[in-house]
Amino acid sequence: MDSAPSIAFTGSARFGTHQLFPPVSLEIDPGGWSCLLGPSGSGKSTILRLIAGLDTGVTFDGRINAGDGRPVSGRVAYMAQTDLLLPWLDVLGNVTLGARLRGMAPDRAAAEALITRLGLAEHAHKRPAQLSGGQRQRVALARTLMEDRPVVLLDEPFSALDARLRAEMQELAAAHLSGRTVLLVTHDPGEAARLGERVFLLDAGGLVEAVPPALPAIRPADDPDTLAFQARLLVALREGR
Question: Which CATH number fits the domain that encloses residue 240?
Fold first, then answer.
């Protein structure tokens, strides 16, 4: 895997004459987790898709650069809000899809090990229609992790999971993506308080940064500083900062 670069996102976006977000400057540190929170419709997912080089339907006026001077394109793994699983493939087939689309032999052993770590071993030969929403989301997460890219963009990757499983998957993803440059979009202040080494709030007024506790991520959910930071984020979201 290439070394994980920083990402600098600067610009604004609009739909026709409607401004989606004003000029913002988002600096994503290399090799760590940055979290982006904000109300629905503020443009969080659009920023993720712009960095990933995907179609957004917006007019973007700005720039997206990697800190090492190389193109961002081709070095990104992206997980969307919807699982986007192919219905005719089983779990193993969906997890190894990226390699197969590139004409490469998938690393079956690594995929099976990851499927087991995600608690899906007994479902490996099931198709998406036979899985629950949470199981489908874990398959999508496994497919993203299998890409082994230096930049990883995650759009609400744990939202369909119950509280216990969500915490377990956060910890597994944090361990598996150690050293990658990760940008996580989430609506959950608690998730950002646990995972974020940098935390940003996006709303109609623009982008602001909230400084997390000095504790290293992933932070204990019951730590007083983590809980206080979670509360500050919730207040900021409710009050529009």
Answer: 3.40.50
Q: Is it the case that residue 143 has pLDDT exceeding 80?
A: yes
**Residue 236 token pair:** 């900021």
Q: Count the domains in the chain.
A: 1
**Residue 84 maps to a domain:** no
How would residue 117 be classed by pLDDT, with cut points 50, 70 and 90? confident
Give every CB contact of residue 157 below 8 A, 6+ residues apart in sequence.
79, 137, 140, 141, 144, 169, 173, 184
C-alpha closest to that of 151 among 53, 23, 55:
53
CA-to-CA distance for 176 and 241, rounded, in angstroms?
32
| Residue 31: CA count within 13 A, CB half-sphere | 5
Sign of CA dihedral 45, 46, 50, 53: positive
Half-sphere exposure of 143 (CA within 13 A, CB side): 28
**Four-residue CA torsion sign, 149, 154, 159, 162:** positive
The pTM score is 0.91
